Here is the input.
Amino acid sequence: MKVLRKDENEPLNFAIERADIKKPTVLGDRYRTDGSWEYWLDDSPKDDDSPKDIAPGIAYIRLSKFLKSTSKELRDVLDTLTGRSLKGLVLDLRSNPGGLLDSAQLICDLFVDDGIIVSIRYREGKGRTPNERNEVYRATADVFDDFPMVVLINGFSASASEIVAACLQDHGRAVVIGERSYGKGSVQNIIDLGDGGGLKLTVATYWRPSGKNIHRLPGDKEEDEWGVKPDLGYEINLDAEALKAFRKHRGERDVWYIDKKKSIPALNLDLDPQLKRAVEYLNQSMKN
Here is the structure.
């Protein structure tokens, strides 16, 4: 591949090797120098601008989407963190569009030991009995239950993100902080039309362990029951300017600098008030 860079007179030649590149869906706070993710918030580089009030043992994990591999990725990370005295966890589902139901179910099962994770209510159809119109996913055995948790959501958290947030909230396993979620709780099936085309048809909706609705139907108002709301006292809405500043700061901290002379900016919790509130909650919970 030849690349002509700005202010260069001659193109540069690069040998590109074809490969199946699998992008991880479990992300941390920043890259380490070896290209792996750093999950400990208090292990961020310290300088005069770094926050000084993050208690040791608080981990930060982001899920970008819910793929088949996500639950195993998350479990592997949690196994490592618990082996290093994990004391509090921030699970960031902000702007996560969702993905596979099975992945969401397995992730919930990592933290909840009993009860309903999510239920699916199918549309009534000819020949369906009431039992055939409902499907319930239940927890089997939790693995990680001895530390406080926060789940971060915003208006772009949808589908599988809402299933996880709702499950952990309804079971009292985590405090939900941020903004009300998107409200996408519908299940689609693809019907093969036999001519190379297909029909995507909504056949069911997801429901919370509490029995409350997740999906926002056309015409639903703000006061109606849909999506996932933050816990009482933990709703933190970002206006357009605050959201822009947060995304810029987060993007700058997501860069992996191969050039060791460059470094990522220090974590600024004032640019992420939702994460700041999560840290405050965990700091207090770890003292009790």
In short: The domain at 26-119+135-185+208-287 is CATH 3.90.226.10 (2-enoyl-CoA Hydratase; Chain A, domain 1). The chain has a mean pLDDT of 90. The first helix runs from residue 70 to 82. The chain has one domain: 26-119+135-185+208-287.
